[in-house]
Each structure stands twice: as structure tokens, then as C-alpha cells.
Amino acid sequence: MSEGTHEFGVLLRRLRTDRLLTMEGLARASGVSVRGIGDLERGRRAAPQRRTVAALAAGLRLDEEQRRRLLAAARADRSGSVPPVSVRTLPRGIDDFVGRRHELAALAAAATALAAAPDAAAGGPRPTVVAVSAPPGMGKTALALQAARVLADHFPDGRVVMDLRGMDEDPPSATDVMLSVLKEFHVADAEIVQAGAAGRAALYESVLGDRRCLLIFDNARDESQIAPLLPRRGRVLSVVTSRKVLTGLRDVRRMSLGELSPGEAVAFLGGMIGEERARREAAALGEVALRCGYLPLALRIAGSRLATRTGLSVRRLADRLAVDRRRLDVLVAGDRKVSAAFDLSYRQLTPDAARLFRRLSVVPGADAGAACAAHLLGQGLSRAEDVLGELVGAGLLEAVGDRFRLHDLLRLYAHNHLEAAEGEAGAERVRAGLYRWLLETTVAAGRWFEPGRAAPPSSRRGLVDLSSADLAGRWLRSQGTNWLAALRAAADAGEHSVVVEVAESVRWFSGRWILWGHWPEVFRMAAFSAGRLGDEAAGTIRLGP
């Protein structure tokens, strides 16, 4: 608080001394801590909220006129005070923030609700915690910093941004972060020393309890690091960002970030390279955004390359990004690399999770299920589900219902590591094994729908539950993209008997999934393969049942 603005503290001290009360005596009478009273009298703390003023007035046994004077002084200090903490210097690029309207609106709504919340019977309003999780490079930090800027008016007592360095080998402890927050709020060193390590948490709670402030804890490592930092009382909004989902945190609002929309991604790039250039090469700019997977970090790196190398056309960059094997090598600007952001999470995986992450890169479709993961891992469903959970928790895999999805750039990164770990031949064996399993399962599922065919024998054991026609049909639909890719690969490899067997097995099922647009392709491939096998086989293939 700037000099000359702590009218409340001067008045409070005079009223207390007029009644011959010590700070300890007023603390006992009001329920406000001795430290809190001292901070208010010395002007170290922003003027209190109405609840605290009422408690102090009751402890001092003020008459109605004195109560009004004390409350007016508190209001005057709040309106004329300088927030004790300012947001840290924002990194370059925050001015070109794009998108995230729904997320920012949700944070603004949380801030508004917190300000309007009535005082609880004991301890005042409860703080609000928003946990923001997303894969690396998705723009969690940018969102948090933008929130710190646009929500400034909601938090007159300060906004603090703390980098918890969760991906470091030795991130700061919760106690260390508490110390940094206390210093940001200008708590005197003598008080911190007096509280000692054992009393630091209580001091932390006391300092934050009467403030309306925004705390941003960026890049949290895990629950054990962040949980002690979340205040238990006061009008405090804490925004926690992490690559991990932090499922162990209780009573928090959760927010997950996805890619930018295509329009937002193009607007982001256009803001970096200039509107005229963006209009002139609009088609190529859309391709660059697409090849970046609409990932904010990749877009920023691509935009930086275009902005700093005016001789590099957007078309040339788009063409270079179109080569899958080189894409991550191209997404480098100075010391910033997309792959470096992925490295931090990949290095923390357990061996099983790292192996599954690498092998998921051979899945041809956009997503995969637990059974597919179990096959790739070479273990049972229960273990595969645990490992998938680790990958989701690490922010390297997105869960959508019972399906799991790799971002396009993470898929390329995973495949590079697969070839590094198992060699190109080994990676091909993994892919071929997955395709063989997909086609074998397709045949078993499709047989359910053949007239006169009985259910698969009860002795059949497999990773996919095909114990009913409904389950079999559900698998064929959900895995259509994957088994079709495997069928195409078999046709390209000249595995004609396999192609014919698969087509025959799904022939009757095709009548139940008429709207799937790939049946003509399936049966054309089968007819061609049957022709290669001989006239007799060719005669068995028809377009559907």
C-alpha cells in the first residue's frame, strides 16, 4: 500500500489504544490474528473486507457511528490503494493471444462468482481452484497469463504468477513457493523468520485470507507440490496449469485445452507475419496451420520462422512441413523446438508407458481402444488400461470416452522414437503385427452375422469381447478406420487370400451398416484379390449380402 493511503490502520490503532487494548487483547475479542491486526495497523496489508471490519468493530465494542467511520476508512483504503503485487512481466507474444474464448469466459465467471459469494458462517468465503491440463505445447501458460491480464479488475489486492517448474529434475518445494509468494506480498523478512519453517503455512494462509487476489501456479509437477499452496479461505482464485490431469486434487474445477480451431490458427499465424502477406499466401498459410496440428507452440515456431526469414515463402514452409519424417526437424526456431517440449514428458514415463507410447504411433486411425493397446504392449487388458492412464495423466494421450488419441505431432514424435528404439525393421514388425491382429479380429467379429453361423466358441479367448452380435458390431464400427487401413495394406502386399477372407466375413454385416461409405472399396479389393486367386474364388465375392 502506498504511503498516505492507510487511513484504516491509523484509525484502528487509535480506537484500540483508546480502549487500552493490546493487539493480543483485540485478537482474542475479535478473532482476527495478532499478525493480521499488526499488518493492518502498519499498512502492510490491503484494507480488510467487510467481514473482518465487522469482527474488529465487535471486538472494540464500537458504537454505530464509530463502526461507520471504520468501514468508511476501509472502503477509502481499498479504492485508493495500490495493489501490493503486480503480475510478473509478461513474456513476449502475449499480445498476440488468440482464441480460448470459452475458457476465458469460464475463468471470468469463476472470478465474478467468487467476488459475489456470501461470507460463510465461519472462515469467510471458500477460495476457487481451476486446474488447467493439456498436452505439451497446447498453450496452458499463455492462457493463464492472458487470464491474469483480463481479470485484473476482479483482484484489487494482487495477482501473482509462480512458475513451479514441474518438468525440472528438482522443482521447488511447496515451502519454497510459499516463501516466494510471501515476498511478493511484501511480508517482512523479520516476520518470515519469526514464523519459522513450521509456521510458514499458517503465515501464508493469514496473508492470503483477507485478500482478493489471483494466484497462478504454472507448470505444476504433481498433487504433492501444489496441494499445500492452495489457500483454504478468502476470495482467492487459484489457477493451476499442468501437463498432468492432477486427479488427486479435490474440490477443483477442471479445464482441459485442445488445439486451436483452423480459423484461430490461421489468424494466429497472420498476426505474426502481417495481414498483407497472410492474404497473399492464404492457401499455403492454411496448410502450415494444418501441418502444425493447430498446436499453439508449433504455430508460434512456424510463425517465428516466417516472420524472421522474409525470404522464406509460406508455400516453401508448407511443402517442407508436408514431409512427415522431417516435420519435427523443421519446427525449430532458435533454441525453441516442438520436440524439446515433448521430451520433458517422455523422459518421465515408466518403461511400459514409453513402449506403449512409441507403439501407438503405428495405429492407422485417429484413435485406439484398450484392446489395441494391450496387443501393442503384449500384456493383458487390465495392465494396458493402467498404462493408458499413465499416458493420459502425463498429457501425452487424450481420452475420449473409451478411446485414446495421439495428437498428430506427438504421433510423429512417438514414431521417431519407435524407430530409434526398435529400428525401422522392428517398427515395421510392430505395424504388421497390429494389422494382422486387426484383420483376425475383424474376421471373428464379422462371422457373427453370417446366416446359419453360430456364435464363436465359448473357449475363444481374445482381447476383444465378441460374446454377442451387438459387441461384435460395435467393435467393427468403432474400428472401421483401423481395420480398413489394415485391409488396404494386405491388398497392397498381395495377401489376396487374407483380403478375400476378411471381405467374406463382413459381407453380411455390411447390410447392417449401409451408410458406411467404404463398402464399395472393400469389395472391389476383394474382387481383385479373388481374381488373382482364380475364377472360383472370384465368383464368391459380391458387393454386399
What is the gist of this entry?
The chain contains 26 helices and 10 strands.
Number of strands: 10
**Radius of gyration over all CA atoms, rounded:** 31 Å
Q: Kindly state the mean pLDDT as a whole number? A: 83
Percent helix: 55-70%
Report the portion of residues in β strands: 5-15%
Largest sheet: 5 strands, parallel
Widest beta sheet: strand line-up: 2-3-4-1-5
Keywords:
single chain, 545 residues, alpha/beta, 5-stranded parallel beta sheet, 3-stranded antiparallel beta sheet, 10 strands, disordered C terminus
Plain-language structure description:
With 545 residues, the chain is of the alpha/beta class. 56% of the residues lie in helices and 8% in strands. The protein is built from 26 helices and ten strands. The protein has helices at residues 7-18, 23-30, 34-42, 50-60, 64-80, 101-116, 140-150, 174-184, 189-209, 223-226, 262-273, 275-280, 282-291, 296-308, 314-321, 327-330, 338-346, 351-359, 370-377, 381-393, 408-446, 469-478, 480-492, 496-506, 519-533, 535-538, and strands at residues 128-133, 159-163, 212-218, 235-242, 253-256, 332-333, 336-337, 367-368, 398-400, 403-405. It has a five-stranded parallel β-sheet with strand order 2-3-4-1-5, sandwiched between helices. Helix 13 (282-291) packs parallel to helix 15 and helix 23 runs parallel beside helix 25. It starts with 6 loop residues before the first helix and ends in a 7-residue tail after the last helix. Residues 1-5, 80-93 and 541-545 have low confidence and may be disordered.
